[in-house]
Amino acid sequence: MSEAPDDPDGSDGSDGRVVVVTGGSAGIGRAAAVAFAAAGLRVVIAARSEERGAEAEREIRARGGEARFVRCDVTSPGQVRDLFARTVELYGRVDHAFNNAGVPGDGRLADLTTEDFDRAFAVNTRGLWLCLREELRLMSAQGGGGSIVNNTSVHGLRTVFPGIGAYVASKHAAVALTRMAAVEHAHEGIRVNAVAPGPVESDMLAASEAAVGGATTWRGLIPSGEIGTPDQVCDVALWLFSPASSYVNGQVIGVDGGFLAT
């Protein structure tokens, strides 16, 4: 039996809008969940880790925000369907989504195993599509409207380093999915955009040290010489959720200290 939506009029102090954040238990995703809740949105945190997801929920609620954790592996169609069904049970609707779940894909193309290649696409491309499919269906059924932001990468617009071919290819595909979804649903008032972060302080950046030189290499490529922060990415996503960006659709916005301009 479905639960009645919690406080649908936003009297809990939220503005009533609902956002789903995939990969929301760590890194950019966790920072986004915290930032969105601080901005007044009701946040559904989706991630595979029960422990870290529950921690993220507690952190937000301790700060006075509204958040729920729902365990979800975005590579599973059933779990993705359940995530959005649960969101509707909790809050009655979905207004925004930040499709952030992602994995690296290190290794030169000639050296990759089939499993490594498939894993990058299973999460970064197919998982993104599975989430987009549910989000677009729900927003359409609600009468249209809504804003979706996909977390891609500068690697989805430009081949930066050798040795991460599966990741680069999967992120190029994510950019294509963003643009197609925007074109197909613009007539319903549903906007689909993407952020394309450059190097951002995260476990993934630290882990890239061995493969591509990590932050040290990146500082030589960024005009500002600075490594970004998760909050800088979240600020752009929040703007894309807002009416201030109402005529922005199908765009991939670099959050990269000027790297894509070089």
Automatic annotation (TrEMBL):
The keyword Oxidoreductase applies. Transmembrane segments: none annotated. InterPro entries: KR_dom, NAD(P)-bd_dom_sf, Sc_DH/Rdtase_CS, SDR_fam. Residues 17-198 form the Ketoreductase domain. Signal peptide: none annotated. Keywords: Oxidoreductase. Pfam families: adh_short_C2 (PF13561). The keyword Oxidoreductase applies. Belongs to the short-chain dehydrogenases/reductases (SDR) family. PANTHER family: BLR0893 PROTEIN (PTHR24321:SF11), DEHYDROGENASES, SHORT CHAIN (PTHR24321). This is SDR family oxidoreductase. It comes from Streptomyces goshikiensis.
